């Protein structure tokens, strides 16, 4: 059963998005279509297109405009996931083999590019030139966030504020974009659009912090990728950064991180220090702070029925285990 089945109006539109996604990834080149479908069929809540639809329902909702835009934004997201997996040399995502592992890096690059082009094509059909420029600027900023993360690999000196800024570009900005594009396409007033954008930005930041926590607290089978994978790839997330910055654990953790080759035992030991140093608890507090900021953004929207859906979504994301 879909998460959105609790909300029939949303579920109906999400079914249209799913149909359009399947149509959009069709290609004369079967390998590109197959690689795209593998990721598409892996499932998930489709939070980003749902945010577009939910936000648009605060205004003059037009399914013929909103559904293609929601699908376009999900295709953008899928493209970034495929490219991420290439950079991270990831073998699995959501419990399935990644495109780069199954088809090779070359095909994965082409598939990601293909999805980007299909996303822009969909968006262009229902948007004017100004919106496409606006959309392009957001996507540029998201890509810059990814580049910043790559450039900062294995950098244990990253400050907490720098890290939070990076994940806002890398992850939260797309959540904010989905909310804003939905609201603006539905001709919501400026205040409503601004509040929904703020909601998306805060929710997206909390979402990434939850991912950071899951990387060092969950079983491999649940999250669909190896525990400690971020550490292995040199991506030092908030729980680890909190630990490194404590003098009591600084030396021991850096000695492990500076090894030429990590073993599974090394990763387990680093995760042990993260737990012992309260890196987990401190990250949870930061995560909770952003959930609360998301809820605070909805204070001026209490009279709208969709606000309860967004409140429910925050609760669901707080409890997620993968």
TrEMBL record:
GO biological process: isoprenoid biosynthetic process
SUPFAM superfamilies: Terpenoid synthases
UniProt cofactor(s): Mg(2+)
Keywords: Magnesium, Metal-binding, Transferase
Record carries keyword Metal-binding: yes
Catalytic activity, EC: 2.5.1.30
Listed Pfam families: polyprenyl_synt
Gene3D superfamilies: Farnesyl Diphosphate Synthase
Domain of life: Bacteria
Matches recorded under CDD domains: Trans_IPPS_HT
GO molecular function terms noted in the UniProt entry: heptaprenyl diphosphate synthase activity; metal ion binding
Family: Belongs to the FPP/GGPP synthase family.
UniProt name for this protein: Heptaprenyl diphosphate synthase
